[in-house]
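To: structure subgroup
Subject: Chain for Friday's discussion

All,

I'm putting the inputs and outputs inline so they're searchable in the archive.
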Amino acid sequence: MDEATFDHRSHEELQAIEDAFADVDPDQVIRLSSEHRRLLSALRAMTQKKKPPATSFAEALARQASNAGWAALRQSPGRRATSSRR
């Protein structure tokens, strides 16, 4: 493609883009983007408030062990754990 053809095609493409966005109000775009930013900030603040406190790995294991589903896996107090390695 020679330079003149390239210039002509690029001019046509730019004109098509300009036509597609001819009725967009730049002030409205700015207002909407500002509102979008404020809404995202509010949502981030809300999710930060709802996050549960961080727990350590040991705390998470203790909580899991106290659940009813793990009761069968716990050993009785008088028994020693046996290792499967020999």
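Points worth raising on Friday:
The mean pLDDT is 80.
Residues 26-50 form the longest helix (25 residues).

D.
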